């Protein structure tokens, strides 16, 4: 439930989300073919101010809560998951600027461009005076075609100990390779970046481990900033289950409406069939279970405590995504071959949800393994 204070903000953002989602759905086949959303959708995200949503209050933007944020993402996801993916990322990625010195925050934020990131620590760095020389290749950099700045991951050594770091730079200083060709989330335009001995100043670098420990924020950031008072990485990943729930809700609506209109070869209406009625009942209950887990996840984030192990967040998240994948697959298999036609809503949603489930933060076996270990007090590495 959104309180009265935030109701006006909430209603405005949901209205924006619907506009973005509806436009993206209209262009879904084109985006699928081109492996990138059109500038029409990207410009609408910017026109609605969504790309500046997750900024500190001192930059003139209202502070929202996780309920508002996740409902925004899931609303776009109801219409198109690639658009939800980028709506989420283009707003979320403002959060990493808060780990930089104030003058760098001002530089990046005041330019008003879109931000991308890829935290996989696959880059190599050499320490030089004033910064680092960076080389590497990063795949799956979502939305990079439209981004001005990007943060990428690498590993440095501090007193002989490996430290994961993120280095921030202008996209124009890197080589962009257009090679995104996936089964799902094709409109995310998750292309490849290459750096070759690129100099990155020290004040554009921050430590991943310090982020995980809550020690990386610029001291000027307000205490009530959304990504400061919650455990950072569980908060950072909150959009993946949210967009999945939006897509799963659309699946249920599509399944119900198409089943009511479906006539079998013997002339019977499938909406009157106990088989499809039972399927819809089971899928609806699964959706309700996933939605309940989402509510619990948000409550955990907003408790402003460190009472929950990162693996618990991870497990809840992967379970929500898995439920949503299951809903889409079962609905598709029950509707039959017509749901496999290219461009059918269930065909696209199922592919996209599989792609969400294959993201490193949504891998089901990994998430359940981490959580099971913690339940038996076995040490496991999980950032959330």
TrEMBL record:
UniProt KW Membrane keyword: no
Keyword Oxidoreductase: yes
GO biological process, alphabetically ordered: fatty acid beta-oxidation using acyl-CoA dehydrogenase
Name of protein: Flavin-dependent monooxygenase
Domain Acyl-CoA dehydrogenase C-terminal: 240-360
One family name in Pfam for this protein: Acyl-CoA_dh_2
Organism of derivation: Ureibacillus yapensis
Listed InterPro entries: Acyl-CoA_dehydrogenase, Acyl-CoA_DH_C, Acyl-CoA_Oxase/DH_mid-dom_sf, AcylCo_DH-like_C, AcylCoA_DH/ox_N_sf, AcylCoA_DH/oxidase_NM_dom_sf
Domain of life: Bacteria
Keywords on record: Monooxygenase, Oxidoreductase
GO terms for MF: acyl-CoA dehydrogenase activity; flavin adenine dinucleotide binding; monooxygenase activity
PANTHER family: MEDIUM-CHAIN SPECIFIC ACYL-COA DEHYDROGENASE, MITOCHONDRIAL-RELATED, NRGC PROTEIN
Cellular component terms (Gene Ontology): cytoplasm
């Amino acid at each position: 439930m959104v309180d009265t204070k935030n109701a006006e903000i909430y209603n405005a953002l949901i209205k924006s989300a619907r506009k973005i989602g509806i436009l993206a759905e209209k262009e879904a086949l084109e985006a699928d073919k081109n492996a990138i959303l059109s500038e029409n959708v990207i410009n609408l995200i910017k026109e609605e101010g969504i790309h500046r949503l997750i900024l500190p209050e001192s930059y003139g933007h209202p502070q929202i809560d996780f309920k508002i944020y996740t409902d925004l993402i899931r609303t776009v996801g109801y219409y198109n998951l690639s658009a939800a993916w980028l709506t989420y990322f283009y707003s979320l990625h403002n959060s990493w600027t808060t780990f930089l010195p104030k003058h760098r925050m001002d530089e990046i934020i005041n330019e008003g461009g879109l931000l991308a990131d890829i935290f996989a620590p696959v880059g190599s760095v050499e320490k030089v005076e004033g910064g680092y020389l960076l080389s590497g290749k990063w795949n799956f950099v979502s939305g990079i075609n439209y981004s001005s700045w990007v943060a990428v991951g690498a590993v440095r050594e501090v007193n002989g100990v490996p430290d994961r770091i993120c280095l921030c730079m202008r996209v124009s200083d890197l080589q962009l390779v257009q090679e995104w060709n996936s089964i799902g989330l094709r409109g995310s335009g998750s292309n490849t970046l290459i750096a070759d001995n690129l100099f990155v100043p020290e004040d554009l670098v921050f430590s991943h481990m310090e982020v995980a420990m809550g020690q990386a924020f610029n001291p000027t950031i307000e205490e009530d900033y959304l990504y400061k008072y919650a455990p950072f990485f569980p908060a950072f990943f909150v959009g993946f289950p949210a967009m999945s729930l939006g897509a799963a809700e659309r699946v249920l609506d599509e399944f119900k409406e198409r089943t009511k209109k479906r006539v079998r070869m013997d002339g019977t209406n499938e909406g009157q069939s106990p088989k499809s009625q039972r399927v819809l009942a089971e899928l609806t209950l699964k959706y309700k279970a996933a939605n309940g887990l989402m509510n619990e996840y948000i409550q955990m984030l907003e408790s402003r405590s460190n009472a929950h192990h990162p693996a618990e967040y991870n497990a809840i998240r992967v379970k929500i995504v898995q439920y949503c994948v299951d809903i889409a697959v079962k609905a598709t298999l029950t509707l039959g071959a017509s749901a496999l036609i290219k461009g059918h809503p269930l065909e696209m949603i199922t592919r996209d949800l599989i792609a969400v489930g294959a993201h490193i933060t949504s891998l089901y076996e990994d998430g359940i393994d981490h959580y099971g270990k913690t339940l038996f007090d076995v040490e496991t590495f999980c950032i959330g």
